[in-house]
Structure formats: structure tokens, C-alpha cells
């Protein structure tokens, strides 16, 4: 039986913690403090793309921690520089520069600030049900009324359009628009996948108006959608790319990748812990594994198998899938089904009131995937 947690603590709990204490994890499996085993179909909210407890990441972290944990960004360090170089190579944004931070929302904040500074414009365009983080700039760029309720005014000059509506974008974008920001797959917004024609139109309109295209790949990046990055699936090129989650291999790390002509401005932005050396070491360990293993992980095939299995379940009304990022609509509260799944040994998350979201580690075995499908059938069929 699951271990029930006493929430009468001093934690300022804004997330809504589950009645479960996970003690350890390995690969795609987790165990609570009572020894109960769970299949991880959420990857720590999309962080553990290559699974838990990877030896190479642990060793890289231990080695760096023994020599130097932190000095701040005022001091250069070769591992920080090397990480930026690796990200430029992996993304193909040749000649670009990388700002290192601690999270996805910080990556977005840097993107928004430098987009306005570079263009000299203030207007931003985001999309309804888009999610870019919960700090003020990132929250202003996204649009979910639940995240905005009761906190007053956000940043001015931010417009929000229906996701996929080319005509609305054509009417709204102008020579005063600094940037358009979007997720190619809206994760928090329901695992809603953009149409290729829409993305091509967004890129064309941005170029026509001198507007920067910011692509938020905090959740879709590093193999989640079947290619190293989702923008490669769609065949578009970001001017600014936001990364985080999987990049740190389980440690807090964000990165904003800027195209070559967007120049850094001393003093305009900063982050005390951004590019922390232990997090950078974890990222190098993760990237070593990613570059070695990704081509053999069968992400597209595993994702298609899970999606087809879900479509055959009677309580699932619609499935949207790209790689191992899957949303399944259900005719009841997703939170209720998530509890049933947890009780049966599978951890997942929601993407809206009636959408289940599945983000298993890309390294999950076929046996592990099929075991998860059997658990899902017991609840959803």
C-alpha cells in the first residue's frame, strides 16, 4: 500500500503534494519508503529523459563537487564554456551564444528581456493555453487563467492568440512586435501539437516583420519528441531557443540559446546560480549519454505503441502523441484517475482537468512499457 504523507509541515506547498514519499529510483522504476514499486511515466515532470540513477551523471557531479561547487558567473570556467559550445553544436545555432540559468522559467525570462532589448520593441505575442513558467515575464507570455488569478497586472503589451490560428496572427503581428513565443507541443496546455503549416506561417510572418521567433523547448527538448529537438521535427529555425528540464540530468539548469546577431549587454541580466558548476557537470554527463544512446532508444516507436494502446481503451476519448510525449483525454477528472494509477503502481501527471499526460523516460524498456500499458488498461478500460 502507498505510504500516506503528513502534510502538516512547514513547507509552503503550492504544487499540491501527493500522499507519497519516493525514497529512491533507478531507470524507469521508483520505490517509496515502504518498498512499494512504481513505474515512472512522468520522469519528474519531464526532467529524467534518460532515466534515474545514471552512473555517468553521478560520477560527473561527484568529481566536480570535490574540486569546486560554485564561484558565480563573474569567474569563467572551462566546463561552463564547453557546455555552451556543446549546446550550440547540438542545436545547430552556429555562431550563437548561450545564457545559463537554473530553470525553464528563467530561460524564458532571459529570452523575453533580450528580445525586447534587441528589437527596441515591447509587444509580445503568445498563445492561449501556452505555458512558459510562473515568474512574471514567463507568466505574461503564457495564458492560463488559473495561473493568473488574484495576482494583479502582468507585463503590458502581451497579446494571446488561439493556438494554430494563422489568420489571427496575421492580423496581430506588426513591425512593433518584438517576439512571438510558442511551444511546438503545448505540454501543460493539453499536449496539443502544432500543425506544420501553422509553424511555417509563424516563421514566415516573423521574418517579414523583423520579429524574433522564440521557441520554448523546455519540455520537448532532448529527444522527448523523437528528434533531439522538436523544431527539427517541424523544420523551422528559432531565433531564440529556451531549454531546461532534461538538460541538467536531474539538477537545476536552464539555457537560453540566442542567434549570432543578438548581442549580450553587460549588466542587463544575470543569475547568481546560473551555470552552477555542479549542474554543468551533470549536464555534461547527460549529454555524453544522450549523444551515445539516443539513436538507439526507439522513441518514435515506443511512443506510437503507447498511443495506439491508449486509443483502444474505453475511457480514453482522444490521444495526441509526438515521440514519448502523450496526452490522453478522459471523460472525468484526470486527478481521480491519476490516484487510481498511483495506487496500482504507475506515476503520471495531468495536462488539464481531463487530460492525462505520459512522459516516461526515453530509456524505458519495451517490457517496462508493456507493463505500464497493462496497468493503464486496468484503470482506463
Summarize the structure.
By secondary structure, this protein is an alpha/beta fold.
Question: What features would you describe in this structure?
Answer:
- The protein is α/β, with parallel strands linked by helices and 381 residues long.
- It has 2 domains: 55-294, Type I PLP-dependent aspartate aminotransferase-like (Major domain) (Aspartate Aminotransferase, domain 2), CATH 3.40.640; 297-380, Aspartate Aminotransferase, domain 1 (Alpha-Beta Complex).
- Helix content is 36%, strand content 18%.
- The protein has 13 helices and 17 strands.
- It has helices at residues 43-46, 55-67, 78-91, 104-119, 136-141, 145-148, 166-172, 196-209, 230-234, 277-293, 299-311, 334-343, 366-380; strands at 22-26, 29-32, 37-40, 97-101, 123-127, 158-161, 177-182, 185-186, 192-193, 212-216, 240-243, 254-258, 318-322, 325-329, 346-347, 349-350, 355-358.
- The strands form 4 sheets. Strands 4-12-11-10-7-5-6 form a 7-stranded mixed sheet, sandwiched between helices. A 4-stranded mixed sheet has the order 1-2-3-15. Strands 13-14-17-16 form a 4-stranded antiparallel sheet.
- It is globular.
- It starts with 21 loop residues before the first strand and ends with a helix.
